[in-house]
């Protein structure tokens, strides 16, 4: 190799090292072995948590730290793993930032907590508990487990959740569901919008309640539902010609309706204090 090539290689190495130092990021790779039905808990004050299904009996974690003012506290007891972002003295939102990229066995149970970062979970079949504050929560292509989401003002997006027991509680964030079904689906929101696009399948119970946010529920003509909808102060509309039925409340034209469609396999309850309710035909 000529001297010129040596110099070029040296410059390239120095450039890469300088770039790494400039970013100030620190990478931690963690590997845990687990048995069946592993339980993983991740608590992160600042930064994103992303979890996907990975190989069985392994939990693979890549944690990217923005500075040395935050540490990863880790512990394992049998099949239980706990990861916590530990903020050191002088840490703030920037210095305490950690991004978690995690792979877990598909049937693992997870508890994910984020103070000021988004949460993403994908292709999981165990129980999933999510607690967030301001950032977005997104759950995609999951099923067969319990999904519990609690958030303050962060939005919640659920896509393709099959045969799940789903409970969502939001103070001000919007809740958007597409292709979500199961034996039980309950969404409670104070001021955020609730939007559902699906077929209300599985002969389940679907309950959407909002204080001041609007509720939009879109279903196909073949949906099999028993519907009760009521808004104390807001308008209520339906695109379907429902067979009338008795309701546990006084039906008042523009503010409520009650009826069935097809075999009425699933129960659908839509309630709001002042928001608009619209049952739409897809």
Description:
It is built from one helix and 25 strands. It is mainly beta. The strands form two sheets. The chain has a 13-stranded mixed sheet with strand order 5-6-2-8-10-12-14-16-18-24-20-23-22, with no helix packed on it. The protein is elongated. The termini are far apart.
Summarize the structure.
This protein has about 280 residues and is mainly beta.
Present the secondary structure layout.
Layout lengths: L2 H21 L2 E8 L5 E8 L2 E5 L4 E8 L4 E8 L2 E8 L10 E7 L4 E8 L2 E4 L5 E4 L5 E7 L2 E6 L4 E7 L2 E6 L4 E6 L3 E6 L4 E4 L7 E6 L4 E5 L5 E7 L4 E3 L4 E2 L11 E6 L4 E7 L4 E5 L1
Parallel strand pairs: 2-6, 2-8, 3-7, 3-9, 8-10, 9-11, 10-12, 11-13, 12-14, 13-15, 14-16, 15-17, 16-18, 17-19, 18-24, 19-25, 20-24, 21-25
Antiparallel strand pairs: 1-4, 4-7, 5-6, 20-23, 22-23
Key descriptive features of the protein:
282 residues; 2 domains; 13-stranded mixed β-sheet; 25 strands
Described by its quaternary structure, the protein is single chain
What's the story with the biggest beta sheet? Answer: 13 strands, mixed
Return the structural class.
Answer: mainly beta
The chain-level mean pLDDT equals 90
Number of helices: 1
State the helicity in percent bands: under 10%
Strand order of the largest sheet: 5-6-2-8-10-12-14-16-18-24-20-23-22
Task: Tell me the strand percentage band.
Answer: over 45%
Q: Count up the domains.
A: 2
Terminal-residue CA separation = 68 Å
